[in-house]
Amino acid sequence: MSVDMQLLKEYVTWDSGAMNRAESTVLLHITHSNLKARMFEIRLDRHMTVESVKEKLRTNVGTGSAFMHLTLLDHNGQVVADMSQDEMKLGFYSPMDGWTIHITDLDPYSLSSGGGLEDVSLVQKYEISEEDYLKRDKNFRRWKEDKVKADPSWSFAKEIKNRQDAQRMKADPNFVPEPHRPLAFSADGPPPRITAILPAGVACSSDLMPPPPSVTFEDKEIPLWTYGQLEQLDRKKLKNRAQDLQNSVGPGRVPAAPVGGGDEATIKWIIGVQCALLHDEFSSRDFGLPVEAGQPEQQYFGASDAPAGARAQQAPQSEYNPNTEMMNSHAEAIQGREAAKARNRGNGIF
Fold first, then answer.
1. Nearest to 32, CA basis, from 76, 86, 69, 84
2. Are 203 and 80 members of one domain?
């Protein structure tokens, strides 16, 4: 062993006193002829006989002590001694921390032979025939058929939403659930690529279904956040998250993040921008914005949370004027700032 490796070994194995042990205790690695697994730093006592060592290791490897042959190896894997005499003490062989005891399994019917204790492919799995499955009174297919018979528009998404709404209504009697909006594609086919209605030259798409954790915008992946995640942040982190979102979208495309109005206004602004990135499929409610919080006040990218029919009447994308959009955004930002100042004056902040 080189000097550098010896120094590294001493550094790694240096006893800090965190694991108190007797002077006669030695930490040895264990390997087995039939097992790929390697057991590290098994605590043994130098006063133990070889027979007692075999009995202790039996619980680790599953080989009977009568069928074990132990070989002591040093740090380099070189044979130090064959521990063939059961009455001898372990300390007779002068083992050191980090050495290895290799177990040779002499049992021709050992459970560990041929990967019997490690190869899970040898384990027989439970299988059921199609006929036996259909004979069961309760099975998934029958449950799904019953659901579809009771409600032809039933789907897993609708089932989950109904259960979530029931929980929220139980917690909040004033909660009014929104109607379920079915997906616009078949469950048997691949999910469509979601593309938001944005100005010409602005690409925004996501392959993740609601609510998506991120969205690709002009070859940049922008993380999306729910109301529950945002309200857990302190003011500084919330402002930084709003600034990061505005920088990712680009200046002039959205109004500036609100300076006043508190954390609630910042959260509504963030969710409003996210809805603009995905407004063709998602609303602020999908991101968890409470009903009492109202809709985001600003109009982003010329889009809104209006119904699909109303969005269809919007001006075509070819009429988009980036200069006009920037001027409108700037004016809306100023109005928002002045409105926030007016609200804050009433609270005695200014």
1. 69
2. no
Residue that is written with structure tokens 């798409």 in the block: 205
Question: What would the pLDDT profile of 222-236 be if each residue is shown by its tens digit?
Answer: 888 888 888 888 888
For the segment 158-171, the average pLDDT, to the nearest whole number, is 89
Q: Which of residues 17 and 160 earns the better pLDDT score?
A: 160
Q: At what angle do helices 262-278 and 235-249 cross, to 10 degrees?
A: 30
Q: Which domain holds residue 324?
A: 194-340
Question: pTM above 0.70?
Answer: no
Pick the range with the lowest mean pLDDT from 182-186, 211-215, 230-234. 182-186
b/e string for 36-54 if b means 16 or more Cβ within 10 A? eeebeeeebbbebebebbb
Within this chain, do residues 94 and 203 fall inside the same structural domain, yes or no? no
122 in any annotated domain: no
d(CA 5, CA 98) in angstroms, rounded, equals 14
